[in-house]
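Onboarding guide, step 5: your first structure request.
Type a short instruction followed by the sequence, for example:

Predict the 3D structure of this protein.
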Amino acid sequence: MARGHGTVVRMGLLALLWGSAFLWTELALEGGLSPGLIAFARCALGALVLVAVCFVTGRRLPSDAVTWRRLLVAAFFCNALPFVLFGIGQQSVDSGVAGVLNATTPLWSLLIGLATGAERGVRPVRVAGLLLGFTGVLLIFAPWDGGGLLGPGALAILGAALGYAVAFAYMARRLSGRGGDPLALSAAQLVTATGYGVFAVPLTGSGTGAWGAVEPSGVLAVVALGVLATGFTFALTNRLIADEGPTTTAAVGYLLPVVSVALGAVVLGEEVGPRVVAGMGVVLVGVAMSRGGTPRGTGAAQGAVTSGGLDDRSRNDATDLHRLGQRRDRRVPLGRLRPGERPDADGSLEPREPWRRRARRLGRDTGGDGLRRPQHPGAAVVDDALHRDGGRPG
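The system replies with structure tokens like these:
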């Protein structure tokens, strides 16, 4: 699909919805809601949206126990834990800076890949990007400056970004590419995360005051956070991946810090000093380097958005190969070809002259014994030679 105005609009809308999550979290905290309550409401409302979409589109949630056990792990690291940590961190860190620190997720993903051996043959540009990205984080924190951002809040947000990286690595190994519908898996994952949110509420309290003291702005903010920045964002992400591929969708990740900083400055009046702006730039350049040096088709550059691992130009080819593989798995026994089919040089299936018609044309006895002539191309050549020699080997 060619990228047109529709794709640009969807990418812009996704960046706005996704990047606004930090703004809504800040407003919900100011409205009197606790981090645990925000995480619970965000997961519940997002799950409600995705389950409704699945119902309307005829999708079914997973039914096997193995998938749900794996979703327990994915939902904890990808949803429940980060959502709570973001709420805790943004009690002392501005929403714009939180968005920038969240952009370190690809750097953590690369570091985890190097530690576990999943990343092999890493190019120097990616290692340089990793080091540069963490240098930008240090520049933002300014631990040498007493007025820097180094503190529990900033560390909580970094922990959330690390949780995302762990979740992406796990999901790539245990959930992706196993035949499940991505949107249905996302809905099931948020349903599971909602269960975790029930336990997070008493751990973090109900908020700054009693339920009656919660401001309407806080309620509206958490509704927007759950419905728009979680539910619709998941659905729109899956749609964009299906239409344009994971590489195009991953590019939205570069816009998130810009959106979070812009919304924080315009809506909340947050001030961003020159040091933080410089650190933001260094982090974004480091992230771009760590992802831009990925070999085509490996999927390492897609961790922040999807574990698909296909670029735009190879996606259609890989889909065709996948369908061909399904066709062979479904219709062709192992080690043999189906009657009337043969592989050509490039592996595709082409019609072959039916063996009975071919036998009659060559003057063979088709007989009534029900035995089938050899269908392997090499065996057919040997069979022709035997027939010309009267059926007697050499």
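Each response can be followed by summary notes, for example: Residues 295-335, 344-350, 365-394 have pLDDT under 50 and may be disordered.
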